[in-house]
Structure formats: structure tokens, C-alpha cells
Queue: 2 jobs
Job 1
Amino acid sequence: MVEDNKNDKNIIEESVDFDMPGEAADSPEEDIAETEPEISGDSSEISEENDSKDEKTDIHAGEESKSKADEEIDFQAVEKELRSNGARFMAGASMGVFAGIFAVGAFAARPAYSESEKRALAEKPEFSINGVLDGSYFTEFEKWFSDTVPFKENLLGMESKMEAFYGVGGESYYGNKSDVVEDTIPETAESLAPIVTLETKAQEETQKETEDMYQSLVETNADGTLKVDTEPKEEVEVTGEQAGNIYVSNNKAYEIFYYNQGGSVKYASVLNTVKAMLPEVNVYDILVPNSFGVELDPSLQEELGSGNMQDAFNYIFSMMDPEIHRLSVFDTLYAHKDEYIFFNTDHHWTGLGAYYSYRTFCEEKGIKPHELSDFQYVDYSGFYGTFYFATNRNESLKANPDHVEAWIPMGTNDMVATDENGQTFKANIINDVSEANAGRKYNCFIKGDNAFTVINNPQITDGSSCVVVKESYGNAFVPFLVDHYQSVYVVDYRYYRDNLTQFIRDNGIQDLIFVNNVQAITEKVSDEILSVFS
Amino acid sequence: MSFTSLFFVAIFFPVFLLVYYVLQGIRARNAWLLAASLVFYAFLGINCLILIVIMAVFAFATGKKIQSALDMADSESPDHQTGDEEFMSPEAQAAYEKNHKSARIWLFAGVFIFVAVLMLFKYSNFWLNKFNLSSLGGIKEGIIRLGMPLGISFYTFKLISYISDVYMRRVKAGSLLDVMLYTVIFHQVTQGPIVRYDLMASQFNNRSLTYESVSEGVWRFSIGLAKKTFLADHCGELAELFLPVSGSGEYSVLGAYMGSLCYMLQIYLDFSAYSDMALGLGQMIGFKYTENFNYPYVADTVRDFWRRWHISLSSFFRDYVYIPLGGSRVGFFRLLLNLLAVWLLTGIWHGASLNFILWGLYYYFFIVMENAFRKYGKSKGIKVEKNGFTTFFSHIYTLIIVYFGWILFRITDFGKLWEVLRVMIGRSGRAFYSTSEILSLRGNIYFLILALSACTPVWKMLAIKISERLNHSFRREVREMRNLAKESSLYEQEVNKDQVLVEKYAENSSDILEEVRKQDTENHERMIARFEKRLRKRKDERTKLEFVYYGVRIILMLVLLFISILSMVGASYTPFLYNQF
């Protein structure tokens, strides 16, 4: 690796003595040659022969000069002639290399979608006069060219192998701190009152105004302990959409949690608002910690980001209407922290983690949970999740692939989903992902994230129904609910566009279950959740 | 287009080179170089291209005007030499003065226009914001719509140097094609170096393209490319990771120091890499440009640092500001003023923000201090002994000054700057280090060592050592060849001498002569055989060495290019985690 980078190996032929203005304040002998710029010195040395590369230089220059015995041998000239062989070969080789690069760049097939980045790659820009004039056409064109470089995935894989040599392996940290907003978790009790008042007011007012009310609430609380940063909101969004900051240790990755005060208040307020709008519905709120909070040593958590996820949950719950069934599954998961409840290379929990939380849910709801042995068990191996790709294929994660364990519901394994674009399709609740791409195996559970999913269990006819409002963490949880309700409706708040309040009222839904993971507690996400109810 | 974009490396550059090599004749090649440069610059937008072409045409016209005024002055008083004024007739002197004056007016007009255009684009935002001249919003909008023409700081300086050189008779005004090529040549147009016109013009019609220059050029380009994409860009990421200057990111004392160190590495590696690439690209088609960096971080004084850092810029200020103002042959206070002008301009040139001016003044202070110290030391007869300790100390001193200089350079917001400095002197109550920083440091420790080593001449010294071995073997081979050649002439001399001797003293000359000749020939053949054997041996040695040398070089070049491409591809990696939550 070291010898790969003999960066300054080339020879600076002549370092012309460049004097600086500061030079020679008082010593005339050092004074600068004022009339003549030193730089011009080299140009006279350039030899007369143009295009000498086209002239054949004999390989056996030595023998040749032997015959011309009487000629005085020009030392420099001979050396030069002798030397040109290697240089010639190198010149030829490098031209070959550039020809190869050109061939690949110009003619090889270009990918359009990146599996590891989970995004469509840049598209070739449309030609436009304006774009050409201000250069944006060319900028886009170059962006397209580099984004869709042939063999991109292979090259990226090699790049990550190269990065593995950058330093001492083992623990590592990926991320950018400039995105981070970290607040301290306040004491539990004190902020209950303002939420309650908001909630009572919210009851009397329309949805839109509630949102405005909420805004003012955040502002009024923006003193003392309840400091809300209004400026970095944009950056919080960036953290949310792209990879967060990731800590890798012992072949396992963790997404670092930073407590967000504004998001916490808003999240609680959204839940209160929903409860106020739907007072007759049982609202369950399941807050799921991530592996960072559950599995890492608390002092390490504190060093890297915010520790005490459970305090954060308790604080958020303390701001909520007591009528809401508030389930922190932190303790539940913590009790099983040595089991396979979180993936190594992915930010999700496993089916097993979801199962333990489901038992807690049953306890709260007062029903008897099914045992794992009641279900049919399936296992799909070879899963590399988001952390693996967010760290650009960290080598230690590569050595520790995940497998997806799932338990097929007893009642039914069928569901009907509506995706982002409004297309309705049938799928299984637990899907066979043995053939799926390594990065997409979490889609085993209810076929990934869809705007709206309906599961009807033919074995239950009591008219019971629930709505699960979730992001992808909920996917692993939903299958366990199937055997307790006649109808389970799953809403992904990021894609759902209808009025969920109306839907719940129209269909007489009894249970409204929020399954949200700790990283979702931001103002942006809370807004998104609120938006599906209006 | 940038040298480090995949499009440049994979398409533009190979096509350019192929056509260039296929074309025969220097004129066709120059035309192709000009066309390619215009295409290269057009990638920044046609608007910018139009601007640069107008600027070049204007420089050409100004140069011609100055030249003709100077010529007129010369032709009207052909014997004129500096200092002749008092011996000239009043009329001749007046005519000379008049022509000279018109040359000077053209010079000032040209410089004024160039500076005005540069100010307009580079500093308009700054001034408009500063004085809140919202009434001039239209201008601002127009400028924004046009876009910031990349490289304008570099090419306006090149043009200023051109017309000044014409005025100072260092060069003759060039043809439109030459001035145009000088301005837009794609090697230098975006990031310098600010090469002088005489150096370029002399090579427009006369440059040698050899296998050496091609292989050296490719080598230099590969080094520059890897330095930029592999080292500098990652150093930049680390700098932002340790010490984020934007956003509200937290950092500790260690983070502030490490971030600044990484920035220091980044700025050198990045900038010198561009120079390496420009020089390499030039070499590949037979141009020789002047070096722009000479390992500035091994400087032992601040003055020395500026002799090694961005040489083409500092020599520009030396030749076109400092020396015209009187240089160092003035009184001490005038000298202070001259230096102040240079350093203010240096600061302003780097960017439209107060911190750059402050940065220039910062260096002004240290340059003046060093000068004063030298002067004082000399007058008092104090001579600082050069030993290991003082050398070490002066290097450390320079590095510290430069290090804090870059902090000043990097952070444009004074509030932030103050905060960072407070953290660095430990007056902020922040943690000494944070775990994530330690992890980042650990995870990049080998990389950082490599980047540090790339800022020192160790690799270059290693390369020189290796190439010395090869040169040595060349020399030995040449020596044998020379011996061989000498032997033949020695033999002839010997034969002649023997003939003379034999004819002079021997009776039966033909027999003896024959014998002597035979002996001579035998000797000669024996010597020849011996020399040939030795030559063959040397040649074998040399060929082997050469094979290894160039083999290793080619492999290293391939590796450098490959890791550059990997880094470029890696730079476009932006995982979008749609199912993030």
C-alpha cells in the first residue's frame, strides 16, 4: 500500500531561485535581478528536434557507435538514446492504458440504478440552450458520466477494500458531525402541563390550526431547558434521509442516536392531537429503541452521542395524554439484548426483536400472545443491510452477514398492498427473499414499505380491526398482529396520501398502533405523521 | 471540466492526446490545442467562454498598441538607451516621451480593465452585501446568471503579466492566436500556474516531443491525479469531520487541532496536485512549465515558505507590484509600505472576504518581523548558529505560523474563528477529545501518515536515489563505449607510429613491419574483444536495471491511475437510504 503512493517521486528538474518580495531587505548582494525574470531561463534549452518521437531510435545504439570509431561520443546524446527505450515503452504503455480507459468510458454499458445506494443514478441531461450558456448542461452531463460509470458496483467494492487500509481496523466511525443536533434530555415531569393545554385546545380547533398551535408551543417553550434550535432543522432532515452517523465495532454497526428536543415535543404533541381527534379509539404508541441504545455500554453511548434512550422515551411519554397506551419496549429488548434482536449490518430490528415487543403489546392490550413455536419458521440468509452500504461495504461488516428470521402468521399469509404510486398488488406477509438482492432482504416482512396494506384474516370474524402507523420498523411487527385482528391496515406515513382520520372513523377501527423507532422522533417525521391524519 | 472528473480522464484527455499525436506539424497541433482548450473551457458555460475570449482579444489588442507605441519611440530615436535623456535633443526627447506615454496609457488602461473585470466577478457579492447596495441588484443578478467564470483570477493575472511584459520589453506583442492560446490553454486555465508569456510563446513554435517527456508527463499527471483524488479529497472530508466549519457540529479540542491539520494537508495536496497535473499535461505534449510548489511545508522561515508556496503567484506580485514600487532598494519605511501593498493584494486575491485580507496581513507581519530580525541581527553582529536545534526550531516555528494561517484562511466567519481559537487554547470548557474523533483518527491513521509524507520530499528523494542507480549504470556503459571507440583510433595511431619506427631503423623492413603489424593487430583485437565483452556486460546490467526501473514505474503509474479512478467513483457514492427509519 505504501509503495502505491510514491506521490512526489518525480523530479523537479530545476528549482529556480524564486525570491520573495520579503527577500533582501538590506543586502544588495542578494538582491533580485530586477530586469530579467528568472523563469525565462529554461526555454532556450529546449532542443530543436520537433516530433522526435516519430524518428526511429536504434535499439543497438551502442554497436552503431562502435563502428564509427573515430567519432567523438557525446556523452549526453548517447545516454539519451540509450534511455529512450524504457521511456518509449512507458509512453506506449500509458497510451494503451488511456485508450483502455477511453474504451470503457465511452462504450461499456452504464448502470441506471445502484443497488447498494438504493437510488436511481443520475440521468443524462436534456440538451437546452440555457443549460449550455450557463454551463449547467455540462455540469449535469459530467455528473451523469461519473455517477453511471461502468462497473460502478465493482469499483465501489474495491474502493472500500482500499479504505480498509486507511487505519487501524476494528471499531470505526462513519458520519459527519456537522449534521448533528444533540440536546440534553430534560427531567420527566415538568413539561406535562403545556401538552395537556395544547391538547384541550386542539380539541376545539381544526387540524390546520392545531399545527400552528404546535408551532407556537415550541416557540414558547424555547426558553430555559426546552431549547429548540430552529435553524438546523434542515440539517436534521439530511440526517434522516441519508445515512446517520454510524459506529462499527465487533463486526456490528450501530446508528448513533442524538436526542432531539424539538422533535420529542412535537412527536408527543402529534400523538396527543391524534388522540384528541379520535378519543374513542385505543391509541397505542410503541417506541422502539435501536441497537445503539440497547446493546452498547451506556458510557460509550454517552461518549458517541446521547445515552439513556429510555429516559428520552419516558420524557416523551410524560408529555403525552395518559389515555394513550404508551409502550416503551426498551426494557423488553434490553432483557433480550444478547439474542439476535437487531441486525448487524442493518438499522432494523429482527423479527425476534419485534416478537418480544409484540408480547409487551399483548400484555398492555390484555390478550394472550402466541408462542413462537406456534408459527411456521423461515430463515433467509445472506442479508447485507443499510449499514453495510452506508459505510461503503465496511470489511468487518462484510465478514458478518445477517439472516432474516421470520414467522409466518397462522391465519393467513396474504395481503393486498398499495404502493407509493397508487398501484395495488397482492403479496405475502412473509415473502420468500432467498432470491432477493442481498440489500433487500428486510422486504421479507410485508413486502417492504408500501403506502397502504390490508391484511384480512379469514379465521377471525369478530370484526376487530387495527391500523398500524409505521415506518419500516413496523414491518417486522405487523405479522404478529395478524392472528389477533380480523383486519389489519398498515399505513406508512411517508407515502400515505389519504385522510387516515376519516378512514378510521368510517371503518370503525378500534386500535390505532404507532410503531416508531427512536430515529424517527424528529420534527420532520412528526409533521409527516400528522399529515396523514388530515 | 476539471482534471479530476471522470469525463476528463476517460474521454476528453484520451481523445485530445490521440488527435494531437496523429496531427503532424506544430501549427496543426497548436490549432488543435487551442480548439480543445476552447471546448474544455466551454464546459463551464458558453457565457464564460465568451468572456475569456473577449479578454484575450482585448489583451491582444492592448499588447499590439503598447508594442507599436514602443516601436515608434524606438524608431524615432534609434540610439536611445536608458539614461540617455540628457544628451538627446529636446524634440527627440519629447517625441520619445510622447510615444512612451501612450504605451503607458495603454498599459494602465489594460490593467485597469482586467482588474475591474476581476473585481466585478470576484468581489461584487462582497461589496454589494457589505454596503447593502440593493439598488444595484440587477447587476448582481446578471453576474450570478453569468456564473462565476472559473479561473478568472488566474487568467486575468496572466493577461496582466502579458501586457506588462510587453510594456517592459520583456516580450514582443504576440499574434492573436498565440495570445488566445496563452490565455485559454486548458492546462493552466482553471488553476494556474500563472506562467509568463515569454515562456509560453517560445514554446508555441518550438517544443520537443520525446518519449521521455511523454512518459514523464504521464507519470507526473498520474501523481497529481492520485494526490488530488486519493489524498486531498479524503483529507478534506477528514477536516470537515474533525472540525466542521458549517452547521452546528460539535467538536472537541482534539477535533479542532486535527481538523486544522487535515485542512493544512488538504490545501497543499489539492493545489500542488493541480500544478502537478498541469505540468504533466504540458510535458505530454512537449511543454515545459515552471514549478509552482517546492515542498512548502519543509520551509524554515516564513519567507522561505512563500518562496516555495504557489511560486507563480508570489513571483507575479514580486515582478509586477513589488519591484515596480521600488523593490528593496528603498528606505525602510517605504519598504514596509511596499511589502504591505504586496501582502494586502495577496490576501485580496485569495478571496472576497475579510479573513483573506487578515490572512495577508498576518503574513505581512511575520515577513516584516523576519526582515527586521535579520537586519537587527546583522547590524548587531548577532549570528544565529546553524545547528540541529535551531534548524529544528525554525522549521517548527514556520509550521506553526503556517498552521494558524490556514485556520485564518479557512474560517470566513469571525464568530466561528474566535470560537475555534478559544477551543484550541483550551478556554472553552470543551472536552479534550471525543470518542468519535478518536475513532476517526484511529481509522485514518495510516492514511494521515501517508498524506503527511506526501507533503515532504521523502518520496522524491527516494526516486532520485533509484534513478541515480540507473544513471550510474548508463554512465558505466557509456564509458565502455568510449573506451572501445578510443581503442580503434589508438590502434591506428600505433600502427602508424610503428611503421615510421620500423622504416627508420630496420633494414629488412617489410618482414619486421609485418611482424609488428601482426602484433599490433593481435593486441588490438584482444583489446577490442575485452572491451566488447565488458560493454556487453554493462549493457546487460543496464538493460536489466532499465527494465526494472521502467517496469516498476509503469506498474506504479497504473496503480496511481487505478486508485484515482476508484477514488473518483467513490466520490460519487451517495447512498440514499429510503427506508432509513
Note: The radius of gyration of chain B is 31 Å.
Job 2
Amino acid sequence: MGQSVALRRTPLHALHVSMGAKMVDFGGWDMPVQYSSLVEEHHAVRKAVGLFDVSHMGEIEIRGPEAVRLADYVTTNAASRLHIGQAQYSGLLYEHGGFVDDILVHKVSDDHFFLCVNAANQEKDFEHIRAANKFDAQVEFASDRYAQIAVQGPLALRTLERLTPVELGSIGYYWFKDGTVSGAPARIARTGYTGEDGFEIYVAPAEAPRIWNELLEAGREFGIKPCGLGARNTLRLEAKMALYGHEIHASITPYEADLGWMVKLDKGEFIGRAALAKQKEHGVRRKLIGFEMRGRGIGRDGYEVRLDGLAAGWVTSGSPAPSLNRNIGLCYLPAGEARLGRAIQVMVRCQPVDAETVNTPFYKRAKTA
Amino acid sequence: MSYPEDLRYTKEHEWVRTEGDIGTIGITDHAQKELGDIVYVDLPKIGALIEQGKSLGSVESVKAVSDIYSPVSGEIVEVNESLAQAPEKLNQDPHGAAWLVKVRMSAPDEVKKLLSAADYQAYVGAES
């Protein structure tokens, strides 16, 4: 495994290495894929609390009198309908309707929007937004100013509340508050990529190692575990959350990806709107749908999907689901065939293995009062 | 991790222990760590012929699937059936109870091409 190109590192890199995490190249970043056991980390998040370094994610800030107009123009969801302190999942699209990236848009104030974007896409996203900026607004590449730590799981709130005066219970799902964590200024968002309750915390990079350690200490009695990208992937897949480069990319539109809810055609002009309006009128040709393996085997990313023996689609993500004890996945099928209960075959190492399309999300957490 | 002296190793992270013309084959501790939580092991049937350096089956973890390359050539005489029900044994005891197959070697001299414990240790030390 020669390393010809220097991998990028988060402010927590040295801690991961010292804690014995297994590190991998993730889109050019040297990231922890697992600490102890992917499955144990997965269960810690479902049953208690887990800690993720997601500092590789990018941040972009949009400011100025027309910040909302720019945010609305470059995204599919209605940034203009956000309240201050609210966040939304959204898409950055090309004119043809394919994804530049999937992102989180946070409204900090009437003239300030804070975007969290995928690590491998951050420079591309920044250029895309800047090129589209015909408004009285400034676009700032802010990734160097933020580390990001995700505290996820049913005991995330009880862990984090020990380190912050912010009343966490008053932050609704997909809302955020600016306050402090361990005495350091922090943006605390009730968001996540696991299907559990939890928070994503944005802090200055220099503060991140101390906060990471204090969170591990605060969650110790709950059995908190540091978690790697391996568990992050199985958790998000069970919750059917899209991963850029898999479910979505430049050739996939939100309608195809079953993300029509993030498209607000009625909000006014935005990049990709014309292509999406046309697709909505004529219908999509392919559609993302969940499946479960029925035969012995795991359908993995990129494997061919067959219908009645003929190639018809491909797997975008597939894995054993630790919370379900089943082998699950997502795949693209011709829209007319993407219905529940359809028998499919996944080509697993050159052998067709039976599978069946199923309802998603595969896992949904029990709602608490 | 110290690698047992009585095994010989491949650069693809398999091992073989020889007694007479019988070779017992497994994957190394390094391999199980790289794979993580193992969920499936696919092994050949008794009587199957395998060839040094060729795939004899696969081992699959939550994260990934990986070929098992045979360290020696010969005929399968025994398969560790317990791994079908308990593949996680490979994470716990890869050099012992979680051996994969036993083979009647057709060319026992092939073992000489494999790495000693010290060489393998140096190899995985350098790789990671």
C-alpha cells in the first residue's frame, strides 16, 4: 500500500492513531475506518452513544444582503423557507439535474447561511457556488475554520449535556444553536447520518482534540465508543441515507434517487430546475429502491442487478445490516420495475443470488416522547 | 502479534502448517484485522483440487470480500465446517481453531517459496 500522495488529516488524526484506529484513505483523507469492531461500534450508536470525527467534511459560508437568494438559487430545497436556527438537507445540482453534491444548509441569520458539504466535493462545491453567484453575496470557503464531531445515539444528549450550558432538549431535529462545548465556541446541530438521535458539533480545529477527549470521558458511563467510517456506513445504509458517489452522483437526479422531497419546484428559479421539471412531467427512467438478499451472499456496491436473468441495474450500496441480521442494499432499477416485493438477482462474484425489493428505511428508530 | 514459527506465510496473508504431506491452511491475524468482522467463509469441497497462488475460496466481512489464495497445491481432504455457523471464529483464533481446509499436498516443496514467520512479520510491519 504505497502512499504516493500525502493524505489529508483532520485535527484529530494523531488521536485516532494513538488510540489504535485502523486508518484508510477515504477520498484523499486518512480517516479511521474502525477502532475496535465495526459491529460493536454500530451497536454502540444504536443502543447507547458513539463518537465520530467528521472533520473531513467541508464548510462553506454564504453571507450578504442577498445570501438567501444565492442559497436558494444553487440548492434544490427552499433555503428561503428556513427559520433562523434551522437546517435542511438539500441538493446542489448541475443544469442537467445531476448532483454536484448533497449538503446541509443552516440558516444562521437573514444574511448568513452555513453549508456542510462532502469532504471530497468541497472545492468543487465552492467553485460551483461561486460561479453561480450573480447576487449581492459573498461565498467563503470555511473548511479550515471548523472541525466537526458527531455525537450519535439515544444517549448522545445525556453525554453532550455534561459539556455544554446549551439546553439541548430545546433543539429540535434539524435545528441548531450556537453556544459552547467544553468552554469553546461551538455550533450544535441536532443532525446526523446514523438514523439515531444525536448532534453534530462544529468547533475550531484547535479545540477539537480536547473536546473529543472530554466527550469520551462524559460518555464513559454510557459505554460510549469512538466509531469509524465503517460503522458510519452501515448505520446510514440501514437508515437509507444517501452517500455521494454511490446513490447519487453527477448522472443521478433527486427524483431518481427517491429524494423528490428535497426538490421545491415552486420556490422559483434554481440551477437544475428546468431539467427536474421536465423529468417530473415525463417521469424517471430508473429509480433507487431497497433490497434484501434472500440467497446466501452480500450484494455490494457496483454489483450488477438482474431481472429474470437479464442485466437491469446496479447496486449502489450493500452490506450486512448489524441491527437487522440481514444483508441489505440499495440499487437502481428501471422505474417500471422498482416496486416492492419484486424478485431480483444480484450478481455476487459471477453468481446470481436471489434478492427481493423491500420497503425503506430498513431501520427506523422508535420515537421517544 | 507474534506469528507462529511453525507456519509458513504468503504475501496475500494465508498460512500453511505441514505434517507429512498434509497441509493445514488458514488466514493470518493480519488478514482478519484488515477485514474486520467476518460474516461468511466460502470454502471448496472435499476432493477439490487447488493450486498454489490461485483462489481457493473467499472470506467476507461486513466491509469487504477477499479471495483466499492457496499457499500450496493439492487435494482438499478436510474442511473446517464449524466456520459456516461461526465465521467470527476467524477474528478470534485465525492461527488455531479457525483453520480453513486441510490439503494433501501434490508438491510439498512449494512450501519453500513461502515466507518464514520472521519474514512475514517484517512484511506486514512494512506494509502497514
Note: The longest helix of chain A spans residues 208-218.
